[in-house]
Amino acid sequence: MRDYIVIAVILGATPVCLFYPYFGVLMWSWIAYFNPHRFAWGFATTFPVAQVIAAPTIIGAIFTKKANRSLITRETLLLIFFWAWTGITVLNAHFEPLFADHLVDAGLRLTELSKIMLMTLLTIYLVSTREKLRYLLIVTAFSFGILALKGTIFGILTGGQFRVWGPPNTFIADNNDFGLALNMTLPMLFFLAREETNRRLRRLF
């Protein structure tokens, strides 16, 4: 049942991402950080949910008029330079016999990084207002917040006997990676709480 719910949400959001690419950025962030498909038990766990959301979002972004026109900044140039440099180092590894056993893994990692960098630049391009940035932070913070709450309940019910892991087969699956991600989320929650005017939401943040 979980599988059908996850896939229905993803496929239902696809046309919306095409016509409202900013919504696609929010959906992609939710999938990237919360990984809802990893909590299913069947075919949804291996379904390419990120690609299904990313493709219409990218197409929609090409035609959208609501975008950040000042995309070329010092920070984005540094991101692009870092992306290009990783490609150069992987290419250079092909000429070094010492790295021959790691070329396949390096290629896979470069592909993963390229997908992340592409969506990161797309996010910068589509987040054009303060309000859009706020909603992006809310999606990100609550994605990790729910995972933290889930891990807290698990830790209490088991008396702290086991490590708290992130969603399986993700970048935050390892307990240390998961802990680092939660620490990185704390400034977002402090910012949201400080800026929020609604008392109940401020307490929630």
Explain how this protein is built.
The chain is mostly helical. It folds into three domains: 1-67; 74-123; 129-205, no CATH class. 71% of the residues lie in helices and 0% in strands. It has helices at residues 2-19, 21-34, 49-63, 74-93, 103-126, 130-157, 175-195, 199-204. Helix 1 (2-19) packs antiparallel against helix 2 (21-34). The longest helix is centred in the C-terminal third of the chain and has 28 residues, at 130-157. The protein is globular and about 55 Å long.
Quick tags:
about 200 residues, mainly alpha, 8 helices
Q: How many DSSP H or I helices?
A: 8
Radius of gyration: 19 Å
Largest sheet: none
Low-confidence stretches: none
Total tally of structural domains: 3
Structural class: mainly alpha
- Specify the helix fraction band: over 70%
The shape is globular
Task: Calculate the mean pLDDT score and round it.
Answer: 92
Share of residues in strands: under 5%
Give the N-to-C terminal Cα separation. Answer: 31 Å
String of helices and strands: HHHHHHHH
Total beta strands: 0
